[in-house]
Amino acid sequence: MKIFKYSLVLLLLLLSGCTGSKSKKSGPAYFYLNQNRNLSSVGRTILVELSNDSAYPKVSSDVTDALYEAIQKKQLFGINVVRKNDPAWRNLQLDNFTGYSLDQLSAIHKTLKAEAVLRGTITRYEPYPHLILGLRLELLDLKDGQLLWALEQIWDADDKNTQDRVKDFYDKTIIPFGDGLEKGLGVVSSLKFFKFIAYETAETLQHK
User: Fold this and answer.
1) C-alpha span between 198 and 133 (Å, rounded)
2) What is the DSSP letter of 171?
3) Which residues lie below 8 Å from residue 24, measured CB to CB, with a gap of 6+?
4) CA distance linking residue 65 with residue 150, whole number of Å
5) Is 119 helix (H, G, I), strand (E, B) or coil?
6) Distance of CA 124 to the CA centre of its chain
7) Which of 28, 33, 50, 156 has the highest CB neighbour number within 10 Å of its CB?
8) Are 131 and 187 in contact (CB under 8 A)?
């Protein structure tokens, strides 16, 4: 049996009722967070380099790096990245993004000595005329296949709400004393935009 097919992601998110804040400058609105699990107790987690549905291959590595850094800063659980050039990627069939079987989850658990796996897909990336990035992510317990967290979101740098949140992020977290031009790079520099997106994504991993 395949675990948590992507075609069911949005349905689960809507049925769960566990979504982000609806405030004016809210972050991701469509995510699922298991109310019965504290992710700080998950243990070592494997982040699988993201699959990529866009026409830009390098974005997989860049967004994976940004997510790794942002999640590591949260210090909820230990996290390591498995890249596409890692033998484990092929041996464990980590590219099967339509769903892992229970046997696969067990093999990942034993081989990589991890308790959970974080995997996902870049559903959309457009560097121009303005930056757009879409993500679909899920965190699975390797022991029983239980869904711990999931997110599906598109960030559009042309959206005023997104622009305001990017500015807030760089005002408060990265370069509080930087000038306006430097802070404005958050919506024109892909790497800075990815850092902001990774930060917002990581923020959804904890109960408010």
Assistant:
1) 11
2) I
3) 161
4) 19
5) strand
6) 13
7) 50
8) yes
